[in-house]
């Protein structure tokens, strides 16, 4: 893991972000009166240079405001407000007798094509405990008072993504938001980020900030894999305010293109009060991840899309506060890597799953476990340093190279073995996607 484990005071809020239960109206405390903006200060005796600087600053501020207004104007019609209804049985004081109750969840989504497909988070439409989907899904678009039902086209729980399609919505109301680029060459820390959604049920809300990190590894999604793949992902971190109800909404750049799907937050207050609130640390699933999964979601026919696996178990594990996580070699200090003869970065192969694509390709796992401060590693196996020409340091990097693959496709892994670099072609089979 490239980032140190956060302290216990930080609570990762995923399921609660879009599935927050709101039974009452938003308290009036949320309705705040905004005082009028103060006029610009006069330049005084700063002279012409001072006046020009003030005017330039004011002009830049006005340009940024105009850009935000224009982005919201164009993207707003593509935003979707999602509500779910789930019938649950609650215990009563009487044996073998349960009371039925309908619970409501709230979230966001956005149109991705002219057919009306709506991309959102899996946990927005998931059933109780993150399993299955809600009994009923309703969507509403900007300017409409009535909601229409929607059906599930496909879900990808490991990536916390879902694709739904409204039924009976007029085609004129379908306004797709263009997808941007979240690649390392296109997305950088410091650039503008605009989050849209329905925080606390306040539908069609907007917040603005910056991209705090273009590649932040955090746990996202719900994995049923016996070897633990598909949990930690590279995410876009932003300080644009994201709160419960924003889940599934778009994170936009200054051109109005989607760069991420808002998914979760770190909430220090949630650790104390149990209620998640934004602390300026929010995460979005990169749009390139969502774009790569779209074809598979559209073909899923209401089913589940899983993360492809080649059958590798990471050999570097870090521990913290009772939890373990796989990490890349870049997480180790240079002195340890030099002593162990390991490269600066790469995915250490601890074990190869029998009868998997990796096993058939001849990749090798380690056979010698060694404890280190804060974790342990398995030595003697291959170190994966690349996949299809892209560098690999973590399991997430490898998964990124597999996103758009299909059964029968090949991925070429570059492995370091005994000091030599090898190109190992690995062919994915149908079992890789189950």
TrEMBL record:
This is S1-C subfamily serine protease. The keyword Hydrolase applies. Residues 316-419 form the PDZ domain. Keywords: Hydrolase, Protease. One of its GO terms (biological process) is proteolysis. Gene3D superfamilies: 2.30.42.10, Trypsin-like serine proteases. Belongs to the peptidase S1C family. The keyword Hydrolase applies. It holds the Pfam family PDZ_2. It comes from Deinococcus budaensis. InterPro entries: Chloro_Bact_Ser_Proteases (IPR051201), PDZ (IPR001478), PDZ_sf (IPR036034), Peptidase_S1_PA (IPR009003), Peptidase_S1_PA_chymotrypsin (IPR043504), Peptidase_S1C (IPR001940). One of its GO terms (molecular function) is serine-type endopeptidase activity.
